[in-house]
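# nightly structure sweep
# worker-07 picked up a monomer target from the shared queue
# config: single-sequence mode, recycle default, output format = structure tokens
# input follows
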Amino acid sequence: MLLLHWQILMEKHHGNDLTHTNTKSIDRGNRNMNGSLVISLDWEMMWGAADWLSAEEYGQSNIKHVPQVIERLLELFVKYDIHATFATVGLIFCRDKQHALNLVPEDKPSYDNMRLSIYANNYLENIKSEKYPLYFAPELVERLKQTPNIELGSHTFCHYNCWAPGQTLKQFENDIQQACKVAAEYGVELRSIVFPRNEVVKECVEICAKYGIVTYRGNAKKFFGQPKGKFHNMLQKAGRLLNSYIKMGAHSVIKYSEIDKDAECMNVPATRFLRYYSEKLRLLDPLRLHLIKSEMEYAAKTGALCHLWWHPHNFGANMEQNLAFLEKVLKHYKYCKEKYDMKSFTMNEFRDFLKAEN
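# output follows
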């Protein structure tokens, strides 16, 4: 609690406190527009961890609980009238290994580091049927499709790494074609994309636009740029961790004027990663919550975007603590909705909202 009081005092000192803010003092660059909350989830199952974590360990500790996590998330989203985008790895749509193999593109990513590829070393071919629930979830795809206010977006077909040396734009395009193809089998038209590991590339965004994808999640302002080496990558990771608990610089919310509303594929930038519960850092959770609530309320008051994101598997371990924390965040959204008429959108809905107001 002392740390939280210190954080609030620092914000007051720098003029950023929202606990007792006079709304007349706030920059209302979008005074006639509602503040917006966008939530996007990177739904990966084991495909996003195949290069560095095992199905035997991480699969059991986190991934196998994802269906339950998603069901609990949907309950909370209904309770607090939340709209959300589930950016889904295309392989998750598959019924089984054979269905997946039938969709593998001929020109697969030729990463210099082939550990990144789920096509290398017969990884896909070697998935055993008892492990299917860690990789494939067609019933859950159908469940999300039928749920109001939920958008099924893309996380590429194979959890494609756009920054990885060796791969080509043509290979990325082949991947997106397959993502669209498997989604179409469920009657889903992909309109939004979240790039795996936040590896956004301008040319890849342009390719997405060719296939009807009209929004993508750009990176947050702080600590998510393309690493310039191992040391820079370490600094960014440390910065992301610190920024989850301690406010570093100005709020991360995005003014609507910063977004190119006429882009073929609109950038709906992330503002904050909703970090998962850590037993070691649990005493700092009041700080973590205060930062998120503060930024959300700032966006609500000023008519700006607050875009939170995380992975469902982040909640697979310590599920109750993570969901309890999320509910506190969503309760604050309810407060912002009632007091400032804040709106909740999927990524594609947010694009429609901005274009309608433009």
